[in-house]
Task: inverse folding
């Protein structure tokens, strides 16, 4: 439950608990001190009474008289805190009683043993009457603590009155602390929600503080940048050919899927280039020479690519070019430029000189005209037809010509043969 609360409410509840504990602790300490003080004050009062009347009590015990009684009663009346008093001789016989003595009689035996009995409302005290080291009797005195208790209750009430103000102060302090301490986390959380480092969308956060908050913000900014850089590298690697640096098959296929479901009225041209006799060059001059040839082809061919073009390597010596927002006429014009550019290419890996050319398949299409699978079959069929014509040739795909149908049949036959060989 606690972990589900926000930091703000955790601070508010914590401060409320702290203030309450402090108030209760203060109250208990004050009550304890007040009780001790009340007892001390009551004992002082008893000492005043006994000191004032000690000689009168002894004289009455030794020589009882009506005048002595009157004198004692008069002097006792000056002490309002006395609820009652019993004067006893050395035979434990009561010889004089003042006011209410009921509670004194109930606690008489205990008072004789313990000398003092302290309750919430009364203090019962036994005081010996001695002279010349001889105890002639003693007094049992009942002191009323109501006045002291009223003072104590007033103090308690004052403390309780401050409790709401203390709680309010605690709430204000917790609000301030929560704002001071939770605001950086709120800013950080909002920045994280609005950031997408995988797409290089980073909300940078700053602070004027020069403490742990600054370190936290700097750490977040650094981490987001590192994630963005790493994501960018991973995305580049996922979408680009490692050897040539152009887009790879995955990226080209995703682009084709996107344009095939585009709601616009744009038209597109797709070219599939395959280098003629690349295997011969690769086998005779070595794969390193073949790699260099591919990089050179990409470098030179990229110079004639128009804007809004996606160019990528889709297999060993095959490349695709997607011309976006392109008419068939402009596509055919670029097709001719491509044949010319690649037909004049010379490659010299060592002593040998190789003439490099390419066969090109061509498909003009618009969104929703083909499915992705149908488009791939169409461009493969077009390239197949161009390769059959010889080096440096092209073929424009036509779904109604016999070549496309024959290519489809040959693919089906090859699939059957492969399946038959696999099953034995």
Result:
């Amino acid at each position: 439950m606690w972990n589900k609360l926000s930091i703000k409410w955790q601070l508010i509840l914590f401060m409320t608990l702290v203030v309450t504990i402090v108030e209760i602790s203060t109250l208990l300490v004050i009550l304890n001190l007040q009780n001790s003080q009340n007892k001390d004050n009551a004992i002082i009062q008893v000492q005043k009474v006994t000191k004032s009347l000690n000689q009168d009590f002894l004289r009455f015990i030794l020589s009882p008289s009506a005048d002595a009684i009157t004198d004692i009663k008069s002097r006792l009346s000056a002490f309002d805190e006395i609820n009652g008093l019993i004067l006893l001789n050395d035979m434990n016989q009561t010889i004089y009683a003042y006011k209410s003595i009921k509670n004194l009689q109930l606690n008489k035996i205990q008072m004789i043993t313990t000398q003092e009995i302290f309750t919430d409302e009364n203090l019962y005290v036994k005081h010996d009457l001695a002279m010349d080291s001889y105890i002639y009797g003693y007094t049992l005195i009942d002191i009323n603590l109501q006045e002291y208790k009223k003072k104590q209750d007033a103090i308690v009430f004052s403390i309780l009155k401050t409790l709401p103000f203390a709680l309010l102060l605690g709430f204000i302090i917790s609000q301030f602390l929560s704002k001071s301490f939770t605001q950086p986390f709120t800013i950080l959380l909002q920045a994280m929600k609005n950031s997408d480092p995988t797409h290089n969308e980073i909300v940078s956060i700053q602070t004027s503080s020069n403490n742990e908050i600054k370190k936290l913000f700097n750490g977040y900014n650094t981490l987001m940048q590192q994630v963005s850089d790493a994501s960018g590298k991973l995305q580049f690697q996922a979408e680009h050919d490692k050897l040539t640096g152009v887009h790879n098959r995955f990226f080209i296929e995703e682009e084709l899927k996107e344009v095939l479901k585009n709601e616009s009225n744009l038209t597109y041209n797709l070219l599939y280039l395959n280098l003629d006799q690349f295997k011969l060059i690769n086998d005779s001059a070595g794969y390193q020479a073949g790699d260099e040839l591919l990089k050179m082809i990409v470098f030179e061919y990229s110079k004639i690519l128009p804007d809004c073009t996606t160019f990528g390597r889709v297999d060993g010596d095959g490349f695709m070019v997607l011309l976006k927002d392109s008419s068939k006429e402009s596509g055919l014009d670029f097709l001719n430029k491509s044949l010319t550019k690649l037909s004049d290419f010379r490659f010299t890996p060592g002593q040998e000189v190789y003439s490099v050319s390419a066969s090109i398949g061509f498909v003009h299409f618009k969104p929703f005209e083909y499915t992705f699978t149908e488009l791939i079959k169409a461009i493969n069929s077009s390239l197949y037809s161009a390769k059959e014509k010889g080096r440096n040739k092209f073929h424009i795909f036509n779904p109604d010509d016999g070549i496309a149908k024959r290519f489809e049949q040959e693919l089906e036959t090859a699939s059957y043969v492969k399946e038959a060989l696999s099953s034995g």
Notes: The CA atoms of residues 305 and 311 lie 8 Å apart. The first strand starts at residue 82 and ends at 89.
